[in-house]
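Notes from the pairing session

We agreed to fold both candidates in a single pass and log them together. This is the raw record for the first candidate, unedited. Please don't reformat it; downstream parsing expects exactly this layout.

Candidate A
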Amino acid sequence: MTLFDSKKLSHIHHELHSNLPSEPALRTKALESLLTEKKLLDAAAIDAWIEM
């Protein structure tokens, strides 16, 4: 049987969630991935827009 340290688990949980990108950043990445996967948009075009 494994014993869990609740404080350690709480710390790990907090660390994982505090390092996540914001929701808009996650949604943007998801859209970018979908559009490039479907070949509707080129990744280089996205990079060029960001640089502008």
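Candidate B (folded immediately after A)
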Amino acid sequence: MPPLDTIQKGKENKPPRLLIYGQEGVGKAQPLDARVLTPAGFVPMGEIQVGSEIIGSDGKPHKVLGIYPQGEKEVFRVTFRDGCSTECCDDHLWFTQTRGERDRKYPGSVRTLRTIRNSIRYGTHFNHAVPRVAPVEFKRNEALLLKPWLLGIYLAEGCAGSCITNPEKDIQEKIIASIPDGDKGTVHEDDVKITKAVNSSNIPSRFRAALRELDLEDKISDSKFIPGKYLYSSVADRLDLLQGLCDGDGYVVKPGSVEICTASPQMAKDIMFLIRSLGGSAVCTKRPGKYRKDGVVHIVKDSHRIYGVFTNGLVPVASKKQTGKWGAPEWMIRNRNSCRR
């Protein structure tokens, strides 16, 4: 559960609010410009209608049964420790687990934001935590030009539209096994070069043509991004994509957590969305890029470090080196131990 960090009053003179009901007696009042996650992505609250599908906490689409305009209400911005935030009124109902409930293994209960505001801290600790969403089931179903893992490893360690650099033998073999039909992969030391199987014309390889269509062929480290059709693909495809990214630019910090580095601000945002859409938590820090050589400090591109944590059983790495470092998160081990006879 990600802890609640801060709750701030919103701006005055906000547009009218809507109250969307789930189960009887449970409502969510939010500004019309608040973003709501649907099977096709985020849309403004004001576009939601009766019959619209929105994503529930189980990651599945659910239909809206009723919409009730609320007029003007005082709005609060709720911010979580990982930087995520949303807006809602004081009567908004949340399922939370307090620190005392976590310590005593109690499941938690439903509380209004007003109640949460009045007990936001437990001494010096965050008090309330909410369940993370289950892996989100989007419904775009757009055709993917490249296998997700291959695109992930290219975004992490590829360049010039044809070369991927990685010294690990199992990754090199997986790259060759993943390239489009009609292309071939050639290994030279740490590089895998992807070309056409038959060099008979000026037509590019299918791999390069796919990158060109995705607008990634000429992108370098600080301008790469994840195409939308991949960010909103199936759970299995998004997991493959994340594994490709982590196998290339990732590092298993400890069981259950991984760190990914990128020089691209947009890529950092995309990776955080990807992790969160799979039920993980993600925090990004930015560090000045520099290195020292012969006593001289050289300034390079800034590094965006994304720290991702998974407690739902998903494994965001696939290479031999990375999976060898991965294991059950500490909280899972503790729970197992507490249940032994």
